[in-house]
Design goal:
Elements: H1 3-6, H2 19-34, E1 41-45, H3 52-63, E2 66-70, H4 78-90, E3 106-110, H5 130-140, E4 145-149, H6 152-156, H7 161-165, E5 168-172, H8 182-202, H9 208-218, H10 222-230, H11 254-263, H12 267-275, H13 281-295, H14 303-322, H15 326-335, H16 338-341, H17 356-382, H18 386-390, H19 393-402, H20 404-414, H21 418-422
Parallel strand pairs: 1-4, 1-5, 2-3, 3-4
Helix pairs in contact: 2-3, 4-5, 9-10, 11-13, 13-14, 13-15, 14-15, 19-20
Length: 424
């Protein structure tokens, strides 16, 4: 058994999560117990290994719920969803001996709900109709339903997902909001304390440098931190050169790398962070372009960093014109120096803004996806191809303008989301 499993939290006091998230989760479950339910479901989303499933398991047990779990290894099509989750969600525990208690007694957990595949054929993944069925279950359930996911924003774009979201409390399961704060320091202190308890129990001695590096490279993924440290259990105070851990790379978030680009005075460190990035060069340039005006205090001298960024953009375009990918690395190297060209840097805390160009592009794409989703749903209802059904959308547009009642009834039958309706 791995350390991550062996030392999984079993009590609320052992959970390493945000106090605000803990308070919200306990409050939501207690409202179910008292019958004062505002939202029937709860969505927890965030990085893998942060303890979403563990937190639900621990809190539900302490509040008094039996946990019924449907994870990603289960087949989760419409039929199976209704058989497992709906039985648990609509009926009380058949084995409960407490006849005096008529309230909810179970919590239904749908783990990795963002991985439910919404297709029309079981040959393409086996989860056919799963999201649509889950939306029905969340609306009708007599017991609380919790969903965990890593990619919430991808899930939002799926057909019928909005019907689920509207009936759920949505929590961004992050242990802290940003680094270099008291909240972040408190979180790191708790992680170190927990690691030291595990090492003492296992009678394993590791250097503080190894512990700190494992945290730095993996947080907030507690599972990965413990896995790395467990792999070093046979090394006692091992030097850096002997540790395979040093060679592991984890992708840097766009926020961290943009912050380094503007504020770090170590050009080599910025380039190293870029090598581990999980976004493309286009996005990097657009993030700098969006936030540069707020980072340069002397606006009359902003032309210099923008000229450097323009040159970087020109280099990036040479990748396609010259069919030579060396220009991509050059573009990133030039962009990484933009912070050094800023004359007077804004030293105050600043929340970096998402690029408006990417936002607009996503909205246009989302509108097209919305119409396609509507076409698929209409096609299923009247047994037509998506393309043929798309030719009929003009009728729905007319209904939306001139027959609001009829359109509302049709939209409910099709489980149209607000985004899909707005695309018409």
């Amino acid at each position: 058994m791995t350390w991550a499993e062996k030392y999984r939290a079993t009590r609320i006091s052992e959970l390493i999560i945000s106090p605000e998230i803990l308070k919200t989760m306990v409050s939501w479950m207690n409202r179910w117990k008292s019958g004062d339910v505002a939202k029937k479901g709860m969505i927890l989303y965030g990085d893998p290994g942060t303890g979403k499933t563990t937190a639900l398991s621990v809190i539900s047990r302490e509040v008094g719920f039996q946990l019924i779990e449907m994870n990603s290894s289960d087949r989760r099509n419409a039929e199976q969803m209704k058989l497992v989750a709906k039985m648990g969600g609509l009926y009380r525990d058949l084995f409960s001996m407490d006849d005096t208690h008529g309230g909810p007694d179970k919590l239904i957990l749908v783990d990795e709900a963002d991985n439910i595949f919404e297709g029309r054929s079981t040959d393409t993944g086996g989860d056919t109709g799963g999201i649509r069925a889950l939306a029905e279950i969340v609306q009708e359930t007599h017991n609380p339903i919790a969903l965990t996911m890593n990619e919430y924003y991808d899930f939002r774009r799926k057909s019928s997902a909005q019907a689920i979201i509207e009936n759920c409390e949505v929590l961004d399961f992050r242990p802290y909001t940003r680094r270099r704060t008291r909240e972040y320091s408190a979180y790191i202190a708790r992680v170190r304390e927990r690691i030291n308890q595990i090492l003492e129990t296992e009678k394993v001695k590791l250097s503080q440098e190894a512990i700190d590096l494992a945290i730095e490279r993996n947080e907030p993924d507690l599972r990965a931190i413990l896995n790395d440290l467990e792999s070093l259990r046979h090394l006692s105070d091992a030097p850096e050169d002997d540790m395979e851990l040093w060679d592991r790379d984890s992708p840097g978030s766009v926020y961290d790398i943009i912050d380094q680009t503007f504020r770090s005075r170590n050009y080599g460190k910025i380039l190293q962070a870029l090598r581990n990035k999980d976004f493309d060069t286009d996005d990097y340039i657009m993030w700098i372009d969006q936030n540069l005006p707020d980072m340069e205090v002397e606006t009359t001298k902003i032309d210099r960093p923008f000229a450097l960024l323009a040159y970087s953009d020109w280099l990036k375009n040479q990748v396609f014109r010259k069919q030579h990918f060396a220009f991509k690395n050059l573009a990133e190297e030039v962009s990484a120096g933009v912070g050094f060209a800023v004359n007077r840097l804004n030293e105050h805390y600043f929340k970096y803004q998402f690029p408006q160009y990417i936002r607009d592009r996503a909205r246009i794409k989302g509108s097209g996806m919305g119409r396609r989703n509507v076409s698929e749903k209409v096609g299923r209802m009247v047994h037509l191809s998506t393309r043929r059904a798309g030719d009929m959308l003009w009728l729905m547009e007319m209904m939306r303008r001139h027959d609001k009642k009829g359109f509302t009834e049709l939209a409910e039958k099709l489980y149209l989301t607000p985004q899909e309706i707005s695309s018409l």
